[in-house]
Amino acid sequence: MSDSLYERIYETIQRIPEGTVATYGQIAAMAGIPRRARQVGYAMAALGRGRPRPEMPWHRVVNAKGESSIGDEQIVRLESEGIPFDENGRIDLKLFGWDGLEEV
After folding, report:
1. Which CATH number describes the domain made up of 3-96?
2. b vs e for 1-32, b when ≥16 Cβ sit within 10 Å of the residue's Cβ?
3. What 8-state DSSP symbol labels residue 96?
4. Counting C-beta atoms within 10 Å of the first and last residue's C-beta, which end of the chain has fewer, N or C?
5. How confident is the model at residue 13 (pLDDT cuts 50, 70, 90)?
6. Tell me: the pLDDT tens digits for 15-55?
7. What ranges do the domains of the chain cover?
8. Where are the alpha helices (DSSP H) in the chain?
9. What is the per-residue pLDDT for 52?
10. CA distance 18 to 57
11. Residues 60, 26: contact at Cβ < 8 Å?
């Protein structure tokens, strides 16, 4: 995958405001690769392999059900931003989903 695609993905993720989340599919569409949510996951995995970006709000990207795909650290970070999980471990995307219009 080209570095420029990953850069578009990272730039999109960096725009997600605190207190909101976006789905992998939403990030893919905004980065110009609709229906390729898995590529967003690959780009995020690459962050831990020689692409350090401490400012990257990776924890604000969740799956299409509003669930954490990364684990406990993601849940803790989101809850610290005021984003609650329901009894099924899901975020209400209607309340906390980013519409892509707000800028950080």
Report:
1. 1.10.10.10
2. eeeebbebbbebbebbeeebbbbbbbbbbbbe
3. H
4. C
5. very high
6. 999 999 999 999 999 999 999 999 999 999 888 765 556 68
7. 3-96
8. 3-14, 24-30, 37-46, 72-80, 93-96
9. 56
10. 8
11. no
